[in-house]
Amino acid sequence: MLQQAPETTIALALGGGAARGWSHIGVLRALDEAGIKIGMVAGTSIGALVGGCYLAGKLDELEEFARSLTMRRIVALLDFAIGGSGLLGGMRLSKRMREHLQDIDIEDLDRPFTAVATEIATGHEIWIHSGSLTTAIHASYALPGIFEPVVCNGRTLVDGALVNPVPVSVCRAQEERLVVAVNLHYDLYGRSAVVKHAASATQISAEPARTRAQRKKSARIGMTNVMVEAYNIIQDRISRARLAGDPPDLLLMPRLSDIGLSEFHRAAEAIDRGYEETRTKIEDIKRMSEVLV
Questions:
Q1: Of 44, 31, 38, 61, which is closest to residue 231 (Cα–Cα)?
Q2: β-bridge partners, 115
Q3: Closest by alpha carbon to 281, among 170, 178, 174?
Q4: Any catalytic annotation for residue 159?
Q5: What is the pLDDT of residues 275-290, one digit of tens each?
Q6: Is 130 a catalytic residue?
Q7: Where does residue 83 rank: exposed (0-12), middle (13-18), buried (19+ CB within 10 A)?
Q8: Which of 159, 236, 239, 289 is catalytic?
Q9: Among 277, 273, 283, 225, which Cα is nearest to 251's?
Q10: In which band, very low, low, confident or very high, does the pLDDT at 94 lie, cut at 50, 70 and 90?
Q11: What is the dihedral of CA 51, 54, 55, 56, to 10 degrees?
């Protein structure tokens, strides 16, 4: 009697990218709709949030929450912590997350899950694959300077995107045969360019007054935006290096460059773009799956 070949599944690496990460919801919707089986999920930052909720069977609740966000609701969820290790304590967000995940452990999930975090004292890349799901997710998205770090088993952990923005390597370490990754930063054009530039005081002073005013206005982007844009650049550079050295079998790249890292209220747009990008690659995924049968 012939044995039935094992079902081919994909390992999904969900990258970090703050508000752009809502597009992961669209990616998962498209994969489920096409009948693509997901064997494991590795997530960094918001990728860990979406991936963890998906495996816990809470994607509907997360999508409803994401689509309901407005600027006012976002402010209401933020708990400012002046003088702490982060601008935001994150306790209100964590409380909202626990309402739905209810102390679920990673071991309770029906498929393997790993959240990537960074140990702030050593710079070590930390793979959280057991224990509290909410703690793992919270540690993975604890953006330095914004959210308070998470202390877990004696380690102080922050956002995993500092070391591994698109965690393909986690999937490879599990010896998964087919790895599909989602990179939320690919279309930030110009981030890798090198520009030779000469500073010239005379040139600046010779500019018309209106041009100088415009330059000054564009330069005043504020402390928060400076931090966000710096983080943007770091993630993009690290993603390029990590993906070049350890590429996935297929890379999904939703067009998200116009959605800011803090624009969580634009969830509907991000979700739709993740869905559309994945739909265009479904046949490629199926073809690669067939080769591995």
A1: 44
A2: 43, 128
A3: 178
A4: yes
A5: 999 999 999 999 998 8
A6: no
A7: exposed
A8: 159
A9: 277
A10: low
A11: 120
Report the alpha-carbon angle 146-156-127, nearest 5: 100
Mean pLDDT over 251-259 rounds to 93
- Cα-Cα end-to-end distance for the chain: 18
Q: Percent of the chain, pLDDT > 70? A: 80
CA distance linking residue 233 with residue 235, whole number of Å: 6
Q: What is the mean pLDDT of the chain?
A: 84
**273 touches 254 (CB < 8 A):** yes
- Check 23, 45, 94, 289 and give the catalytic one: 45
pLDDT (mean) for 199-224: 54
Q: Name the burial class of residue 82, with classes exposed (0-12), middle (13-18) and buried (19+) by CB atoms within 10 angstroms of its CB.
A: exposed
**DSSP bridge pairs for 127:** 116
**Higher model confidence: residue 87 or residue 222?**
222
Q: Are 259 and 26 in contact (CB under 8 A)?
A: no
Question: According to the model, what pLDDT value does residue 221 have?
Answer: 59
For residue 208, pLDDT over 60 is answered with no
